[in-house]
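We store chain and fold; thus.
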Amino acid sequence: MDSHRGRRAFLRFLAASPYVAALGGIREFAEGAPEIANSSEAHSVMDFEDVARRKVTPVHWAFIASGVDDDATLRANREGFQHVQLRPRRLCDATHLDMRTDLFGTVYASPIFTCPTSGEKFLDPAGELAVARATKAHGAMQMLSNSTSTALEEVNSAHGRPVWFQLYAPSAWQACEKIIRRVEAAGCPVIALTVDSTTGRNSETYLRALPKNLQPCLSCHAAGLGPSVEGRKMYDGIDMKGVALRNPAMTWEFVDRLRKATSLKLLLKGVDTREDARLAVEHGIDGILVSNHGGRATETGRSTIEALPEVVTEVGGRIPVFLDGGVRRGTDVFKALALGAKAVGIGRPYLWGLGAFGQAGVERVLEIVQGELKLAMGNCGTPTVAAIDRSYVAKRLSW
């Protein structure tokens, strides 16, 4: 009898769960669906998750799947999009839909880009090169991590044009400057300085997954897939003895110094408030990436899509605003664009694709999200990305 009561209580819990409710009528089909055998069988980016989970080692899976503390911000990023509704306009000509987006003078096929993620070779031997070839095939922008496991110059070659570069500022300016000069020499047009993880993070879920004996991990992490400098290609030729990979002393004075040190476009990645957005403009920053590191920096409990409007309002069109965090659908991209984002980044979905089927998986992820965005544009009556504005979204009401 107790077991029956427990089962009924569990079922009641599931019925009340917002996660299960979010699945709607698809859950009876999704829960029993067989695992896809190749990328072409995927109907949504979520189809890649289970395949990648099976293929990737548990500790590496924990690294990409987890957040910090209780993973509340990780969950909030996804839930935030459910609080924004679409307001489609009808009887609009959708014969010709144009997703092309101009980012600092370069035109991309869509406003969707791949976010920087650490050392991607732990998911596929081709790593960042597979992502570069996939983004090239779909005309997407690639933002490369400072912790890349593949040389920047090789990634640029595979991508067909220079990528954007994400910078973790080391504690010594000399080391930082050498990285900047290499990025400039490679022809990269944009540096995105990460400002949301200067003092580390409490990656509790990931730490629990670490094996007690770390010896088997050393060959992987010595290849640039962990916290050590060895194997991380951007530190080649730089004396990092006594230099921390993050700079806890970084302030707006450092931003000013970086601004004066390079003529490249400079973004701040991790600005989520109007106060910091105002300061970014005052300090000559060229753009803001509203991001919380995929829920992997500070446990704010606040989604990026909810932080976006105040940043956009504060900058008032003076500089472009970008967004990442929790994006799983083309409709998510549409919502972010409507709330003022210039372009929208995806992270975990393309990593699932990479871990599941390599380059083919990343290509299919991009194809799916771009296709969903195009459908949303047509059904909402917006023939171009520029036509998407706040009139096409509404905040969900609590009835």
About this structure: Residues 142 and 163 are 5 Å apart (CA to CA). The chain has two domains: 4-33, 46-210+217-388.
